[in-house]
Amino acid sequence: MTGLVARRMTLTATHSMNTEQLILNLSADVPRVYRHALIERIASGVGGGALVALTLVVAILGVRPDLQHAMQAFSFWMKWAYTISLGAGALYAVIRLSRPTPRSLCGLWLLAVPILLLIGVGIGELANTPRSEWLTLWQGRSWKVCPWQLLTLAVPIFVGLLWSSHRLAPTRLHAAGAAAGLAAGATAATIYGLHCAEVSALFVLTWYSLGMLLAAAAGAMLGPRLLRW
Length: 229
Known about the structure:
elongated; single chain; mainly alpha; about 0% strand
């Protein structure tokens, strides 16, 4: 009995040594990954897509002629603060979800802050606008096309993010796709602000947000197909 136990212990030790040696052999020639490689890869995907979207705005939609004057107004920076903050939060989620063992997304509750702030600005607008003009304040002049133009501009940015994420190892594919879609939509909305002349917080809160949500929904549906590895 004692000899049998000793042989089993020897076999177990040998197996353990073989496993450790196998791991060492497999990892011997693996190059060291640069610490910020993931962030730089995602940034390059967003940057390339954003450049294409900016080209589309300049070449097709056109930059608003009063852009220099508009950049001195609160409404312009209100839109950019909203879209940039949502885009930053979405990119944070993209980075967290691009790993095989995704980290916690509890920090995403901060996305509620810009939404609540814009709601507050919108309530202030309503309080200072006659009720007969509320519909105009909400719809502006481009509510029918705004969400769809945002969604169109989000496509090249989403493609860039797919390129960035495809060689990574996301496992929560619906969530990763939705985060990429939201990041693309928010970045597209930021670029779209160079063309859009709407000044109402209610307009931005409704129609800009709808365009970003459409991009996020499309990303959630396409994620499992396009991000599978």
